[in-house]
UniProtKB/TrEMBL annotation:
Protein name per UniProt: Sodium/alanine symporter
Transmembrane segments: 12-33, 71-92, 98-121, 148-171, 191-211, 223-242, 262-280, 313-333, 356-379, 399-419, 425-445
Family statement: Belongs to the alanine or glycine:cation symporter (AGCS) (TC 2.A.25) family.
Membrane topology label: Multi-pass membrane protein
GO molecular function, one term: amino acid:sodium symporter activity
Alphabetical UniProt keywords: Cell inner membrane, Cell membrane, Membrane, Symport, Transmembrane, Transmembrane helix, Transport
Organism from which the protein derives: Pseudohongiella acticola
Main localization of the protein described in the UniProt heading: membrane
Cellular compartments annotated: Cell inner membrane; Cell membrane
Superkingdom per UniProt: Bacteria
Length: 470
């Protein structure tokens, strides 16, 4: 297994080279420039959209704006914020967090463009159902000579959307933080525990995904906001104890990001680790979020782009930063642990009394990991349906449930290498089609924002549903 793991890590390292870093970060900068920073200037309007004022139940799609964002966030919030941040700091030092911030800042523009296209170029699957995602954007928006990119994305997404990171880290935190300390499991025999817990998790996931995408949206919109609120309260309690130290650690993050002697291989190494973990956290430019927002009930593509762009802010700039600061101020990052979620659990246990912090983290990880696994099934099924026909995609539920069990028993290093490789291959077609169709987005944005600025008496104006209807 060690040889396989090393091979997978070598593949991920090759794919996540400087060209991919330039594609993701440079692409986000390009989208921000050509949009004249409009996505950043319309955050208040994005919040108004999420309030439901612009929802129309008769619009095409499966999910409301808030459900689409919650479904997308349920795929990003979780292991990227808790285990991914810990892994980034463990491998790349504090400076890796800065490059995660960079992916989020430019990711706002990237998500605006990719998710506007998700609605603008929705296509129909072989059953005639309306679908969204990079593969449909490519098929509907580009000529046939580009259609191989759609196949590449769908095939890569079948790897990138596997539930193995989520179940792997959930199993680890339950074993090491909950069951072993309580004397309910033998720490020297992890395989048996992993197998049994994997079976339990597989049954839990199956109970939701066999209900379809609407049940996923229903569950996500109830789980994600409450878990984000609980997790933020926990982090703020820890940071309040160390409030005087925060400026120093924020400066440490910035300083180490540009240090030639930074942990993780100097400037290039820490940049690569930060961007890789940032992409895993917020998925801007990867394409998974495009599939979730492509299912939104709306006839205004720009409107869904505005909703989607809030993801990197919530996910990386807020939640990941809080996790990073908790890990730094408690000092656990200096203990040499790079096994992800356990480091984060140890950080919280340093401040919160007794084992309360560790148990709360275990609970949050349970919810975050579960919601992500629910959402990733939807992504994988859509990709399989694109490749072999939508009438066959329902069989993916059985394979996906089995893969939950597999992810619980394979090593963490192999898990991240598999997912990182899948994400790298997904990013290439997603960013390529977005570059090629960026002009369509800027034109649609100019039209939408022009209508938004018009008075309520103008019949062409963008207005809330309550005022738009006669």
């Amino acid at each position: 297994m060690d040889a396989i793991t090393h091979g997978l890590q070598a593949l991920a390292g090759f794919l996540w080279g400087i060209p991919l870093i330039i594609l993701l970060v440079g692409g986000g900068v390009y989208f921000a420039v050509i949009s004249r920073l409009q996505p950043y200037r319309y955050f208040p309007h994005a919040i108004a959209i999420l309030s439901g004022r612009y929802d129309n139940k008769d619009d095409p799609g499966d999910l409301s704006h808030i459900q689409a964002l919650s479904a997308a966030l349920s795929g990003t919030l979780g292991m990227g914020n808790i285990a991914g941040v810990a892994l980034a700091i463990g491998l790349g030092g504090p400076g890796a967090v800065f490059w995660m911030w960079v992916t989020a800042v430019v990711g706002v523009a990237t998500k605006f463009f990719t998710c506007t296209l998700a609605v603008m170029y929705r296509g129909k699957d072989s059953r005639g159902d309306v679908q969204g995602g990079p593969m449909y954007i490519i098929r509907e928006g580009l000529s046939k000579r580009w259609h191989w990119l759609a196949t590449l994305f769908a095939a890569a997404a079948l790897v990138g959307t596997l539930p193995i990171v989520q179940i792997n880290q959930l199993t680890q935190v339950m074993r090491e933080v909950v069951f072993v300390p309580a004397g309910l499991a033998n720490g020297n025999e992890p395989f048996l525990f992993n197998l049994l817990f994997g079976l339990f998790a597989a049954a839990l996931v199956a109970s939701v995904i066999f209900g379809g995408v609407k049940r996923v949206g229903y569950v996500a919109v109830r789980l994600v906001p409450s878990m984000v609120a609980l997790y933020m309260i926990m982090t703020l309690l820890v940071l309040a104890v160390h409030v005087t130290e925060l400026p120093g650690y924020l400066w440490l993050i910035v300083r180490e990001a540009f240090s030639p002697q930074a942990v993780g291989g100097g400037l290039v190494g820490v940049m690569t680790i930060g961007v890789m973990r940032g992409a895993f956290s917020n998925e801007a430019g990867i394409g998974t979020e495009v599939m979730a927002h492509g299912a939104a009930k709306t006839e205004e593509p720009v409107r869904e782009g505005l909703v989607a762009m809030m993801g990197p802010v919530i996910d990386t700039l807020i939640v990941c930063t809080c996790t990073a600061l908790v890990i730094l101020v408690t000092g656990v990052w200096q203990d040499g642990l790079v096994d992800g979620v356990t480091m984060t659990a140890m950080a919280f246990s340093q401040v919160l009394p007794g084992n309360v912090g560790a148990y709360l983290i275990a609970f949050v990880v349970l919810i975050f990991a579960s919601s992500t696994m629910f959402t990733f099934w939807y992504y994988g099924a859509k990709c399989l349906g694109f490749l072999i026909g939508a009438h066959r995609q329902d069989s993916y539920k059985y394979y996906y449930t089995l893969l939950v069990l597999v992810g619980a028993i394979i090593p963490l290093e192999a898990v991240f290498a598999i997912i990182d490789s899948g994400y790298a291959l997904m990013a290439v077609p997603t960013m390529t089609v977005t570059f090629l169709l960026a002009g369509k987005v800027t034109a649609a944005a100019r039209d939408y924002f022009d209508r938004l600025r018009r008075g309520p008496d103008d019949p062409a104006a963008v207005a809330p549903k309550s005022t738009a209807e006669p």
